[in-house]
């Protein structure tokens, strides 16, 4: 079956010019033209275009482009492995997110409200205690994630239990998918003694990872169709049911 550009554009929800961009980037098979000069898209092209849309929603366009170029040149295993690597990274991000939530859930409200005697520490002592480089701690201060008080006489930074807690949380968040704004929201709620809101922010971010996984799995289903096609599968593959 032959498709006009407008037919495919409407079907996958992009402009006809976007289809031409995909062609120019070399992520769909070459397109023949009819006697009138118009492009003649086939079921194979439709499968590629649908894959571009599905995969880019979950993996981003750079990785999608890399994977489809590999499929086109016959490197099917290479295409699958780079996708698998991206899934592994997402799995690690989920572990870190869950670790952060556990850390937040382990905090007791009295810890936040404690105004008793504080044992002040230097940045070197805090770095050793939290296993975070002093350079990273200073960087987080510049980004506004922490705001330690300073000694009245010498101006040195002073770190107490609240700052140590923040540094531990930030260290966990920064190794994962958490955005700077999300980290600031978590720390802000801790500063306000609103522990439950900080936990809600963290859980929302974890749910975002779940959503990202679903998008990636939809993209993988479309990629699997292209691999099957390249290995001699049906000439007119059906789109997967999402």
Structural features, described:
The protein has 11 helices and 2 strands. The chain is mainly α and 242 residues long. It has a two-stranded antiparallel sheet. α3 packs antiparallel against α4 and α10 packs antiparallel against α11. The longest helix has 36 residues.
SSE arrangement:
Blueprint: H1 5-12, H2 16-24, E1 32-33, E2 39-40, H3 43-59, H4 61-72, H5 76-106, H6 109-113, H7 123-130, H8 134-142, H9 161-174, H10 180-191, H11 195-230
Antiparallel strand pairs: 1-2
Helix pairs in contact: 3-4, 3-11, 4-5, 5-11, 9-10, 10-11
SSE order:
HHEEHHHHHHHHH
Widest sheet, order of strands: 1-2
Rg is 25 Å
Largest sheet: 2 strands, antiparallel
- What share of residues are in beta strands? under 5%
The oligomeric state is single chain
Roughly what percent helix? 55-70%
The count of helical stretches stands at: 11
Q: Unreliable runs, pLDDT <50, ≥5 residues? A: 111-117
User: From the helix content, strand content and strand pairing, which structural class follows?
Assistant: mainly alpha
Average pLDDT for all residues: 83
Number of beta strands: 2
Q: Rough shape?
A: elongated
